Amino acid sequence: MQIRFANAKLQKTVSVEKTLTKAFGPQMAKRIKAGLAVLQAADDLARVPTTGSIRCHQLSNNRDEQFAIDLVHPKRLVFEADHDPIPRREDGGIEKDKVSRIVVIEIIDYH
């Protein structure tokens, strides 16, 4: 998938290994890089693992248009489909196999 970032600060933090490690620590930096590599390697959102260490999942309530992957507990990498309009199924849900571009919103503990 194609990945972009919600703002330049986040992109710079994630793109420069020294900055990434300084901001999040070595273990978290490693998980962020691995998660982004999995997202980038997938052709679409439907092909991102929903189990295991990545565990891609759709969020709910006021974040129901967003997805997250697990990092170092309790942190998550939160992203959205980067399509206009967002591909939809007949029931209104997001058609994950049509999502080929995402925008990373934040790295956060939203719990």
CATH architecture grouping = 2-Layer Sandwich
| Strands ordered across the widest β-sheet | 1-5-4-3-2
Fraction of residues in helix? 25-40%
Query: In terms of structural class, how would the helical and strand content be classed?
Result: alpha+beta
CATH class: Alpha Beta
Distance between the termini: 27 Å
Uncertain residue ranges = none
**How many distinct helices?**
3
- Helix and strand element order: EHHHEEEE
Inertia-based shape: globular
Give the overall pLDDT as a whole number.
Answer: 96
Organism: Afipia broomeae ATCC 49717
Protein name: Killer suppression protein HigA
Write structural notes for this entry:
The protein has 111 residues and is of the alpha+beta class. The protein has one domain: YaeB-like fold. Helices cover 29% and strands 23% of the residues. A hairpin with a 7-residue loop joins strand 2 and strand 3. The two termini are 27 Å apart.
